[in-house]
């Protein structure tokens, strides 16, 4: 089977036969990541031709393909609307193999849309459904396609047996003889290996991915993905120059596209900024981040937040504390915007799905309408209850730092925007704990040791705090503590316990000669509704502690 990834538009333009339309859509489905503009033009033409034929299934497939292109370009709202349109176009189609193919493609799109809108339980269900339908259709290219889409969900949510699923996909790509898909699968395996700490195995997989991608054409997007992953792996190894080379190679490939994939762009820019910081090129790191922010404009606040956090780290390393603080503040604001955007999209998705269910029920016979509506409402009520329970579980997972298990910046952004009832109307203290000279730990002992230090530090914080207190990993080596109903004196005692526990811990068990101290800024307020101002004050006092020589607590100044 050929490894070409470019959509073939000639078949659809030279004839309007349903068979030619289906063949053109299949080719475009395989190649839209490398030629999004060509695939989009073909999808729209096929939709028109299918509509003229009255071929609703083909029209739905064309609409779904347009949705995949929209999502590839970062337009989640557009992809959501196209998915719902495709669903309506399929509503009255009788069962059959082509309907199964169409529903598999649509389920793959819905899985990704649900993931990017924060509906993780729906994303997992749709991903599994897409794989099931793809296998039932029996088309090898389709089976690979739906799994590629599903791994956006599987990889980010770290589903069970992820390694086995990746191996199964690799076997399918080898059976198809598709080197492009093999390359992307080796890239995904490299991400998985890096995630479980097998850095050298990850490097070996990324080398296989690169070799395969270079043997196919076109391959610009595939190479950009692989070099971006390679940059992250080299950063984990502590080789900033190799990481910078890989990140800039990825960005050079992306720059050749008028509308590059913004998620990939954000990941590559973040790696570029961190790599330049690692070799001391702080001005270049900041400029790279600001250029990407300018290109993104008002789009994708979460991606912009990730870039800003990396810029803040570069500024902090350069000793530009005020600029670093400003960048972190902008990053927190963007996190809040991202949370609001996701919440709005989740609501729109649920409303649209409920409307689609209602519309389908209205196609039933008049005699059965009331019964069907009652059933639909009962199902919707049950689904709402189930979603509320699952959403709470998934929110807690999403609000946890992947490494340490404590709360993360997403949780903090929501608390800043809307503090929980438990902390409203009561005395509140906030402490920000920063591990002193943590960069030296990574530089001298490696990032793997650094990760173990962060995990143990988080465990120590949880051990010395009360059950009512909350620990947030707010930055690389920075933790924020929320202490409700705690005055300044009690907060100082708590922070002394923290500082003492960190200093007394036998860090040499992790790496010989390793020791650790911490600087702490503390602030207390009778008005906890002003949480953001309180956090800013604690952060300011942290910087005072660091300027005063570190290994100390500043509660006023």
Topology readout:
Blueprint: H1 10-14, H2 18-31, H3 36-53, H4 56-72, H5 76-90, H6 97-116, H7 120-137, H8 140-157, H9 162-176, H10 179-195, H11 199-214, H12 220-237, H13 240-254, H14 262-278, H15 282-296, H16 301-317, H17 321-361, H18 369-398, H19 409-417, E1 428-435, H20 438-445, H21 447-464, E2 470-473, E3 478-484, H22 488-504, E4 518-525, H23 531-547, E5 553-554
Helix pairs in contact: 2-3, 2-4, 3-4, 4-5, 4-6, 5-6, 5-17, 6-7, 6-8, 7-8, 8-9, 8-10, 9-10, 10-11, 10-12, 11-12, 12-13, 12-14, 13-14, 14-15, 14-16, 15-16, 16-17, 17-18, 17-19, 20-21, 21-22
Distance between the termini: 70 Å
| Count of individual beta strands | 5
In the predicted model, the low-confidence regions spanning at least 5 consecutive residues are 1-14, 363-368
Q: Percent helix among the residues?
A: over 70%
Quickly count the helices.
23
According to CATH, the fold-level topology of the domain at 409-554 is: Alpha-Beta Plaits
CATH architecture of the domain at 409-554: 2-Layer Sandwich
Q: Compute the average pLDDT.
A: 83
Can you tell me the CATH superfamily of the domain at 409-554? Reverse transcriptase/Diguanylate cyclase domain
Q: What percent strand?
A: 5-15%
CATH level 1 class label of the domain at 409-554: Alpha Beta
What structural class is derived from the secondary structure elements?
mainly alpha
Q: Largest beta sheet, briefly?
A: 5 strands, mixed
Shape: globular
Q: Strands of the largest sheet, in order across it?
A: 2-3-1-4-5
Radius of gyration: 26 Å
Order of helices and strands: HHHHHHHHHHHHHHHHHHHEHHEEHEHE
